[in-house]
Amino acid sequence: MPNTITPTRSVWADLFADPGVAQRLDWRSTSLRSAAGATVMSLVNGELVDHWLDYANLRYPQLAVSYAGAAAPPTTYTGTVLTGTHQLTACIDAQRVREQLAKGATLVFSNPEHWHEPIAHFVADLGAAVAARVETFLYQTAAEQFGSRPHRDESHVFAIQLEGTKQWTLYDLPEDVWLRGLIDENTPASDEVVLTPGDCLFVPMGMGHRAQAGPEGSLHLTVAVQTPRLRDVVTAWAAGAATSLSRHERLPIDPDERIKIVVRLLQQVTARAGDADVEAVAGLAPK
């Protein structure tokens, strides 16, 4: 069923041309194509990518090169730069990167929010709106090439088509347990969507997908939204609960005494769990 998120500030207008799209998102199982907002479309373009290559002093793995998902050795597009008396390794060599792109590669810029302020502000606003971790990846793919092999992600994905076109092949989301990573290329496709500049495609967590650039190549921004795993919530809460215990107290050697102490300790923890600030544990309120 669609979510019940209430739009906050202008973040949904930043992501969608129609902010009401946020109310139609089915975060559980259904992809959705819509028009991207002017703000997200303005975050990055091909000219800025060229500037990053030449002047941003990027290093691997901030930029990685792959061929249909197979990583190219970083030594084929990086080098050593002398800064004063210090040698910086794994520095991006713009000319060699462009040569890789000309050979059919995909350039993957990871987390540009770490060095580009407009993307950083967008990520912070969206993360606050959905109470989740948000990060971005920029993919520049050579003409007619696949950016990756079919795979599933542990994040909800918004793909923003910035330049060129890209055909997305989608696969059904399994009803049973699924694992992040590659899936069989012979898996039957459930849908195919061609994105043109200004399109936004939502792909829910776990839905298999892959994408192929059109005849002019492709530049698209992926916005990944990842809510906490249940085990992470339990681990974080338990770590907080543990702060009330003395760091020096240990279980005794005697097995019977040890069992008694553990039973009593678990009872105390269970009682404390009943008094927990549920919104804070769920990441919906300040801890």
Give a verbal description of the structure.
By secondary structure, the protein is α+β, with helices and mostly antiparallel strands. It folds into 2 domains: 1-227, Sandwich (Jelly Rolls), CATH 2.60.120; 230-281. The protein is 29% helix and 30% strand. The protein contains 9 helices and 13 strands. It has helices at residues 11-15, 21-24, 38-41, 46-55, 94-102, 117-130, 230-242, 255-274, 278-281; strands at residues 32-35, 63-67, 70-71, 78-83, 86-92, 106-110, 133-141, 151-152, 156-170, 181-182, 191-195, 199-203, 209-226. The strands form 3 sheets. Strands 1, 2, 3, 6, 7, 9, 11, 12 and 13 form a 9-stranded antiparallel β-sheet that branches. The longest helix has 20 residues, at 255-274. The radius of gyration is 23 Å and the shape is globular.
